[in-house]
Amino acid sequence: MTFRDDVKYQESHEWALKDDDLVIVGVSDYAQDSLGDVVYVELPDVGDVKKKGDSFGVVESVKAASDVYMPVSGEIIEINADLDDNPSNVNDSPFDSGWLIKIKPSDPSELSALMSAQEYKTYTEGLED
Amino acid sequence: MQRVPLYPWHVDAGAKMAPFAGWEMPIQYRTGSIDEHRLVRRSAGLFDVSHMGRLEVTGPGAAAYLDRLVSSSITKLGVNESTYGLLCNESGGVIDDLFVYRLAERWLVVVNASNAQKDTAWFRSHLPDSGVTLTDTSDATVMFAFQGPHAIALLDRDTNGTASAIERFHAALIDVCGVPCTVGRTGYTGEDGVELFAAAHDAERLWTGILALADRHGVEAGPIGLAARDSLRFEPGFPLYGHELDEDTSPVDARLTWACDLDTDFIGRDAIVERKRAGASRKLATVIMEERGVPRQGCDVYHGDRRVGVVTTGLYAPTVDAFCANVYVESELARTGAIVHVEIRGDRKRAVVASRPLYKPAYR
Q1: Contact at 8 Å (CB) between A30 and A123?
Q2: Which residue in B has a C-alpha nearest to residue A36's C-alpha?
Q3: Residue B247 maps to a domain
């Protein structure tokens, strides 16, 4: 299980990484492992504006459909369209080719309020899988 | 929650265990269910299906007793032959679907784990005063399936060629990896292979023996979880109870009249004959999604603005490489090429009725 430590996490298992003035978002390694094989990812339209905590899409695994939630508020600037043909990138490479969206954040303080890798790791250890 | 004898083995092998029909079962192992599915289609996979119910029926009245309860032609079975069949209620609804093996001195009935208690009660309540003995052997035995294009040839190596000598839907008593087994040339994956019944105390020897045998002969094989078992049974068009079948569903709607010998007087027969005569208002169909999205059980199906049916199973079918679903729809729409829309989270997505089965069983 990888807990990449240059990204921030929220309790619904998304990670967020500051990339210049954007925030890249994906699901954690812990999340992809719990979901099992991802077969479809539904993403928002570029230009959509959403608040922190809003659902921005659905990650569908063999087992179930799981909503994914905005870790910060802002406008969707880019989506990972490659996941249409390669949804398993979410399993194989959750922090790299499995990224989901890029957000132009409207409130930069929201990012710093998220959990660190260590905090998130501790949080997942308290969860029953 | 019940556990199969090999529960510790599955956990050690990295299986994700989850509740299924009151059992804690391996859903998938480390490589994931899609790889497991492909392994079975390509080479061979081993399934622990010991959660399924196993009943033995003995006595001079056994054949007549089973023939009254099971839809298929029980009395036509020779020794060491088996048949798929349905357990129906008086209204022709399906209590369960099952497999019946006629062995030398006994009949073996294999039922779904989810229905085992209900079925056992039904079987018990129909026992005649004498001449038939019903024994639940589920706890004393294990049940494995070894399936895939290389499964039989591999077992031949260990059994001196006796595995391939068993014809499709036949059975034999042979030793596999030193373990006495009832072996049926049956299975629920669309691949050739066997189902094995052995004493519970031999479980680990048989299971690890088969995997070691594959290893020794360079045959790619591995354990397969219930998630892949679902997609493997879906592609060749095999129903799953609780999805395509329930007590309110007629075999006519489910396209299972081939499993009903209407010349025999089994419980539910008259209702099925009547449903067939009157014509079913809805039928099972399989659709392929033309717009991307994963249909799930319970999703509504539309034709234009009209709701015409419901999804019973929906998934990504690895061999077909498409999102697919079984649906019950108005009968006139259950024809190849018909266009319907499946509502997934509020969006109606286009799907086309496909020719069944999506995957033709390798042995057919």
Answers
A1: no
A2: B32
A3: no
Q: What is the pLDDT of residue B16?
A: 96
Give the one of B33, B292, B345 whose C-beta lies nearest to A37's C-beta.
Answer: B33
Looking at the structure of chain B, the number of domains it has is 3
Residue A129, pLDDT > 60, answer no
What is the CB-side half-sphere exposure of residue B272 using CA atoms within 13 A? 32
Using 50 as the pLDDT threshold, list the residues of chain B that sit under it.
Answer: none
Span A113-120, average pLDDT: 97
Residue B154 CA to chain centroid, in angstroms?
23
Domain containing residue A24: CATH number: 2.40.50.100
- Compute the distance between CA of residue B126 and CA of residue A28 in angstroms, rounded to an integer: 54
Residue A18: which domain range? Answer: 8-106
In which domain, by residue range, is B289 found? 281-353
- Residue A42, chain B, CB below 8 Å: the answer is yes
- Interface residue of B20, B24, B34 to substitute, partner A, most A CBs within 10 Å: B34
**B242 in a structural domain:** no
Residue entry with tokens 């390694």: A29
- The residues near B111 (Cβ < 8 Å, ≥ 6 apart) are B52, B53, B54, B55, B87, B96, B98, B119
Q: Are residues B128 and B172 in the same domain?
A: no
Q: Does B34 touch chain A (CB under 8 A)?
A: yes
Share of chain A above pLDDT 70, in %: 98
Number of domains comprising chain A: 1
Cβ(B181)–Cβ(B174) under 8 Å?
yes
Residue A117 near residue A5 (C-beta atoms within 8 A)? yes
* ipTM of the shown complex: 0.88
Write down which residue in B79, B114, B136 finishes a domain: B136
Separation in Å, CA of A23 to nearest CA in chain B: 27
Per-residue pLDDT tens for B271-307?
A: 999 999 999 999 999 999 999 999 999 999 999 999 9
